[in-house]
């Protein structure tokens, strides 16, 4: 791919414990979640979205947020994030060892209604005190904008509409905006069109990309985003993920596939792939289904790792 511009390093944001587990039929025991997150940290994943402080009746798989946060291992350089939809969520998170609070809205009114029970305007009004209080506590604030390319209820979303929501989030004072292709309909061309629109107002170093992988285009979309200048990428171990309010959504792009893609292209992630795959195998056994990634299917003895030092037959 000559001419592809790549950064020297990428900040990976692991969303499997939140985006992944919210979409599983089974609820994983709290201690098991903590053990898995510890394995992710051991593999060098240093930014982990651990859970959500949302209404437990709506997402029962993450109802143990307070207890989980109390069990998370403290590791130098590892930062934990959690979704916080409103002041009630922030109050629940007050004792949690969080570095990042993540608020979430969408570029589509219908999705926002289904997901968080209000309009986009109302969601932004709810975030205002959450952002102010989080900043007062010295926390970073990430904001998700969902359905940035397509919406399960409204179809294609114009990039200008996403830019408008991003502008309002910047006014609220968020640090970073993660652009969510919630139902995974993006392509590289649409990704770059979106980034050109959003990039008119959001500095590229504050943009993250969050691709679900319904059509197998997520890795290509990530390349398109990196080429545009993005350096923050969300992914989920084992390709877990999906949103209970986004019919048709598939899992997130798999962290192990992203790590292979990036490290194999000379882009540093800080993640050790074999150790990450231990975490993939662990959670797959807990959930009782195989990981959805390509990399996890490679026999461990044949793993092409580290990419620059691997030789045939080794
Ligand atoms: P609400 O407006 O209060 O209304 O909640 P509600 O009817 O949905 O909930 C009412 C009940 O929840 C009340 O309790 C509230 O007190 C309680 P009741 O009186 O019935 O006993 N409640 C809470 N309880 C605990 N913690 C809270 C909280 N807030 C209210 N923080 C709310 C609005 C947003 C909380 C609710 O609609 C909700 O939790 N929705 C779930 C949203 C969610 O988690 N979606 C999935 C994550 S988003 C996603 O996956 C996309 C993303 O990955 C990016 C992408 O892929 O695009 C981020
Ligand atoms: Mg998601």
Describe this structure in words.
- This protein has eleven helices and ten strands.
- By secondary structure, it is of the alpha/beta class.
- Helix 8 packs parallel to helix 9.
- The strands form two sheets. It has an eight-stranded parallel β-sheet.
- It has helices spanning 16-20, 30-42, 65-71, 87-92, 109-116, 120-136, 159-172, 188-198, 218-228, 255-263, 273-287, and strands at residues 11-14, 47-52, 79-83, 100-106, 140-146, 150-151, 155-156, 176-181, 207-211, 232-235.
- The protein has a single domain (11-302), classed as Alpha-Beta Barrel (TIM Barrel).
- 52% of the residues are buried.
- 37% of the residues lie in helices and 15% in strands.
- Magnesium ion is lined by residues 19, 180, 182, 210, 212, 241, 243, 252.
- 3-hydroxy-3-methylglutaryl-coenzyme A (HMG) is lined by residues 19, 22, 52-56, 58-59, 83, 85-86, 88-89, 92, 104, 115-117, 144, 146, 180, 182, 210, 212, 243, 245.
């Amino acid at each position: 791919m000559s001419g592809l511009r790549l950064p020297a390093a990428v900040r990976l944001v692991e969303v499997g414990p939140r985006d992944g587990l919210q979409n599983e039929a089974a609820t994983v025991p709290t201690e098991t979640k903590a053990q898995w997150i510890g394995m992710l940290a051991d593999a060098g994943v240093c930014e982990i979205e651990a859970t959500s402080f949302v209404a437990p009746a709506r997402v029962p798989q993450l109802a143990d947020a307070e207890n989980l946060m109390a069990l998370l291992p403290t590791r130098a350089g590892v930062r934990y994030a959690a979704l916080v939809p409103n002041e009630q969520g922030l109050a629940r998170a007050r004792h949690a060892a969080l570095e990042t609070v993540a608020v979430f809205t969408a570029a589509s009114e219908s999705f926002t209604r289904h997901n968080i029970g209000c309009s986009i305007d109302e969601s932004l009004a709810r975030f205002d005190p959450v952002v102010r209080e989080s900043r007062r506590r010295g926390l970073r604030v990430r904001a998700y904008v969902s359905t940035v390319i397509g919406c399960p209820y409204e179809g294609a979303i114009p990039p200008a509409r996403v830019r408008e929501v991003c502008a309002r989030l910047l006014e609220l004072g968020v640090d970073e905006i993660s652009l969510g292709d919630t139902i995974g309909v993006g392509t590289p061309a649409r990704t770059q069109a979106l980034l050109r629109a959003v990039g008119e107002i959001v500095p590229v170093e504050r943009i993250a990309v969050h691709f679900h992988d319904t059509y197998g285009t997520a890795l290509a979309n990530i390349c398109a985003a990196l080429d545009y200048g993005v350096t923050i990428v969300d992914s989920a171990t084992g390709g877990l993920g999906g949103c209970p309010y986004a019919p048709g959504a598939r899992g997130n792009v798999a962290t192990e596939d992203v790590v292979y893609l990036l490290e194999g292209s000379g882009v540093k992630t800080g993640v050790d792939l074999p150790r990450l795959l231990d975490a993939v195998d662990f959670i797959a056994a807990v959930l009782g289904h195989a990981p959805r990634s390509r990399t996890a299917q490679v026999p461990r003895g044949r793993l092409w790792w580290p990419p620059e030092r691997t030789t045939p037959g080794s």
